[in-house]
Design brief:
Radius of gyration: 20 Å
CATH superfamily of the largest domain: Jelly Rolls
CATH architecture of the largest domain: Sandwich
Largest sheet: 8 strands, antiparallel
Structural class: alpha+beta
C-alpha cells in the first residue's frame, strides 16, 4: 500500500520495525495489531487462537474478520448462525492434490462465540459496509494452479469483496518444495485500477509440513522495492510477515512443501488487482511455452513398486518418501500404483 510503504519503509530497512514475527505455538496471541505503532501496517491485524483455551467471545465493532483453521475442530455461533467444521491432520493432509481449507466471515457489529480444539487464525480490517456472517466449507471452492516450472503453486481464494466481505480478501497459497510463489514479481501499492493495480496491505502466515529436527524445514520471504527496502527473512513453521507494500516473493526450501495463509485490505472497498513488475512479465510467455512442450512430451510414468525399492536403497523415511513424490510430480513424472 503506497501510504503504508512510504511510512514504514525506513523502519523496516533499519530493523527498528519488525515485519517478521514467529509465533511460538503455545498460547493465543495477537501477532500484528494495526493500532500498535511498532507494527508496519495501518489497516490490517492478525492473530492466532489456541482453541483449547476457549471458549472465546469476539465483538467485531467497526471491523470485519476472516477466520481460517490451521488444524483441529471448531464451532462458531454468530447471532442465529451456527457453523461447525474441522481440518483433521492440518492442510497437508490433502495437499498437493486438493485443499481442505475453510473460512468463517464475521462482519461489522457482530458478536461471535468460538470454541473447539486446535489452531485457528484470524485476519481483521476496518469494515467498509455491512454483510452477514458467512461460512465457506471445505471443498466449496477449488484451488487453482498458478505459475509454471519453478514458480508453480496452488492458490485458493476463500473471501473477497465481490462475495463475503467488504474489505478483506483472504485465502491460502501452497508451494511445493523448492519452488517460488509471488512470481512473476508483482505489486499492489497504488490505487490505479485502470492500470491493473490496487492499493493493499497484506499479511502472510506460514506453515510447513516437516517441522522435526534441529532446524526444521525452512523457506525464505523477500520484501523489497526500488526505494531502498531490501529484506530477506528465514521462515519456519508459524512465521508471520507484515507486508506494507513492495515485492514479496517466497521460496520454499527443498526439504518441505509450505503453505501460507494470506489476507489483504485497504482503506476503501477494493478488488484484488496485482501489477507485474515489467521486466519480469516475460515469465508468462515462458510459462506458455513450457505448457505447450509438456503437452507434446506427455508425462513419464514410474511404477510405484520400483520407486519404493529405490527409496529403500537410499534409506528414505516417510518424510523423505513424501518429498521424493513431490519432487517427481514437479518434474513431470506420474506414479503408477
Amino acid at each position: 500500500m503506497q501510504s503504508s510503504l512510504f511510512k514504514y519503509r525506513p523502519g523496516i530497512q533499519s530493523g527498528k520495525m519488525q515485519a517478521h514475527v514467529r509465533w511460538d505455538g503455545k498460547a493465543s496471541a495477537t501477532i500484528f495489531d494495526a493500532a500498535d505503532p511498532t507494527v508496519p501496517l495501518d489497516y490490517m491485524s492478525f492473530g492466532v487462537y489456541r482453541l483449547e483455551e476457549g471458549p472465546f467471545e469476539l465483538s467485531s465493532a467497526d471491523r470485519e474478520f476472516v477466520f481460517m483453521p490451521v488444524e483441529g475442530e471448531y464451532d462458531f455461533r454468530i447471532a442465529d448462525h451456527h457453523y461447525t467444521g474441522s481440518r483433521a491432520g492440518g492442510p497437508f493432509a490433502t495437499l498437493p492434490e486438493k485443499s481442505n481449507a475453510s473460512a468463517v466471515y464475521v462482519g461489522r457489529d457482530q458478536t461471535a462465540k468460538l470454541s473447539g480444539n486446535g489452531v485457528m487464525i484470524w485476519f481483521a480490517a476496518p469494515a467498509n459496509g455491512v454483510k452477514p456472517a458467512a461460512f465457506v466449507a471445505p471443498g466449496q471452492i477449488e484451488q487453482v494452479s498458478r505459475g509454471k516450472g519453478v514458480w508453480h503453486r496452488e492458490v485458493i481464494t476463500l473471501a473477497g469483496t465481490s462475495d463475503l466481505s467488504t474489505n478483506l480478501i483472504a485465502g491460502e497459497t501452497y508451494s511445493p518444495p523448492g519452488l517460488w510463489s509471488g512470481t512473476p514479481l508483482h505489486t499492489h501499492d497504488k490505487d490505479e485500477p485502470h492500470k491493473g493495480e490496487a492499493d493493499l496491505e497484506e499479511i502472510y502466515f506460514h506453515v510447513a509440513r516437516n517441522v522435526d529436527g534441529q532446524w526444521g524445514s525452512y523457506a525464505v520471504q523477500l520484501l523489497f522495492d526500488s526505494e531502498g527496502m531490501n529484506q530477506a527473512y528465514l521462515l519456519h513453521n508459524y512465521d508471520a510477515i507484515a507486508i506494507p507494500g513492495g515485492a514479496h516473493p517466497v521460496v520454499a526450501g527443498p526439504t518441505s512443501d509450505v503453505l501460507y495463509f494470506w489476507a489483504l485490505a485497504s482503506s476503501k472497498p477494493t478488488d484484488l488487482k496485482m501489477k507485474d513488475v515489467p521486466e519480469f512479465g516475460y515469465l508468462h510467455g515462458v510459462a506458455a511455452i513450457l505448457d505447450a512442450l509438456e503437452q507434446e512430451r506427455g508425462r513419464t510414468p514410474v511404477k510405484a513398486e520400483r520407486l519404493a525399492r529405490m527409496a529403500d536403497e537410499q534409506k528414505l523415511d516417510d518424510s523423505g518418501r513424501e518429498m521424493l513424490r513431490q519432487h517427481l510430480m514437479e518434474r513431470g513424472f506420474r506414479i503408477e500404483y
